[in-house]
Amino acid sequence: MTTNGGFEPVFCTVVPPHVLDKLARNDDPALSGPAQRTLMRDSELRGRRRVTTEFALAAAPTAKAPSDQPLRTIYDAEHKTALPGTKVRGEGQDPGQDATVNRAYSGLGATFELFLKAYGRHSIDGDGLPLDATVHYDEDYGNAFWNGEQMVFGDGDGEIFLDFTIPIDVIGHELTHGVTQYTANLTYYGQPGALNESMSDVFGALIKQYTLGQTAAEADWLIGAGLLAPSVSGKALRSMKEPGSAYDDDVLGKDPQPATMDDYVRTGRDNGGVHINSGIPNHAFYLAATALGGNAWEKAGQIWYDVLTGGELTDRAMFTDFAELTVKAARERFSDGSEELQAVSKAWEQVGVQIS
Which of 197, 247, 312, 331 is deepest in the core (most CB within 10 A)? Predict the structure, then answer.
């Protein structure tokens, strides 16, 4: 259940549609072909998710009693599309020869650990939900997604995208869509959808920093570093430190993310720009976290988690609504006049989100 009285899983991918659209129009079939197939597959899966949700056709996941240990299962789709595929590694089993399987297993564990150790949350749903993931999905599939029930990773096409299990923050990003699904259940359109995407980037970044033992000052604040092939002029899919700077490539185009409300993008594509305008709340989090220093998951991350799970964030919340709740959460957790409250308030002011 969610705090808004409904369980409404959505189909969420890490690579934005506008990136794949650009690739799909390329004159080189080696680049356009995989992108076109990925777009078609994503469209089909999104439609299927909508139907199963609307008509309650999907089986409810079987939750386990809360545990301090994850329950992970990794499957191999063997470049087909039937889910979940063939089981290749279960909880507690030793690593095998397939590095993709091992990375997926480790990434699920790292995500579980961050939410448990930092916030006392038992898995994605807070109630010990088993963590399932499928690797080697489809042929040249250029994406990774959370489908409301499990994680799925493509291998990429090798020309633009590499294996989607390489960046641990991509794994954390997608699993955090599950956390949002079970809590605030933010509508996947417009500003609520951009907040949904931003929550996944925030906690994806925190999972990477926690795993690497990095402070806010030491972190690169990139989402998807290591995912782009060497031939691409870019460093990641998104930058929380400098939205709009992640890539500038002849094939991919230029990163369109804004850092402030002055450059807010109004569009009907990408579910109203959910992957684009997420740069604004992303940058606000970066500013708050770096102003506070130390480990970002301890203060800024705690405030954001309090808002996501506190029950006051509605499914149609706008940036202003979310910002005001972070200020309230900072005041309640750290007191009026605290450096935490000042850092959060100033961060939203810097990105142009007004707080009453």
Answer: 197
Buried b / exposed e across 81-119, counting CB within 10 Å, b at 16+? eeebbeebbeeeeeeeebebbbbbbbbbbbbbbbbbebb
Q: How far is 109 from 102, CA to CA, in rounded Å?
A: 11
Beta-strand ranges (E) seen in the chain are 12-13, 72-76, 86-90, 131-135, 144-146, 151-153, 222-223, 238-239, 248-249, 253-254
Contact 242, 260 (CB under 8 A): no
Residue 14's pLDDT band, with cuts at 50, 70 and 90, is confident
Q: 3-state class of 119 per DSSP?
A: helix
**pLDDT tens string 118-141:** 999 999 999 999 999 999 999 999
275 an active-site residue? yes
Please say whether the beta carbons of 291 and 241 come within 8 A.
no
List CB contacts of 355: < 8 A, sequence separation 6 or more: 320, 323, 324, 327, 345, 348, 349
Token pair 């990163």 is found at 255
7: left (phi over 0), alpha (psi -120 to 50) or beta: beta
Q: In angstroms, what is the C-alpha Rg of the chain?
A: 19
Q: Which of 136, 149, 159, 174 is catalytic?
A: 174
Catalytic status, residue 174: yes
